[in-house]
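pinned: reference chain
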Amino acid sequence: MKVKEIMDKEFIAVSPEDRVVDVSLKMEETRKFTTPVVDGDGKLVGWVTSFDVMRGLRDGLELVSDIMQPPERIVHVNENDPARLAVLETAHHKLVSIPVLDDSGRVVGVVRSFDIVETLSQLYEIKVSKIFEAMNGELKGVSWDELMEAAAIITRRRTGKRIKPKEYEERIRNSTFGEAIWATGGLEKFFVGLIAIGELVIARKIARARK
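pinned: its structure tokens
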């Protein structure tokens, strides 16, 4: 399997001349919180994450060019690389996502992953709270309480049952990964929920930063 078979082709891309506030709105609207910065030919010239955007909003920086990461610092893969290379790169560099380029250097997709992929087989007996702690460690600038609030909101949206953040925290501290997979209806649904929680907590941080 090649990278182009697993990459997200519906990614958002921005220009160095775009305004930071507009990018924050686009991220919130699409629920995609990393984006390649491209030139007029669609070639990679930078990379922006939600944390770069929050920093820009906080510091009053106006343009994407003021906050983007330079190309030499960006980990990327080619669309024809083996899919496992994308997984290994995201895991090794502890990245949520990386851009995918074609042979001419144009951005043609984004691969999104969690750094727990390589240890998935060992997770079934681990407490769910450990997964959330690892996630919290990667979401720099997000507190544990904010993560639990987002988790409680997503749980209410998905189940219709109200649950307090403290109740959710107690639940994940007493449940194993294997039990959580069974309770949520499978591995895919568990990770869809986990991604939704991460996206919500970031969206809430961005919204607060704009105020």
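why pinned: The first strand starts at residue 34 and ends at 38. Confidence is low (pLDDT under 50) at residues 114-121.
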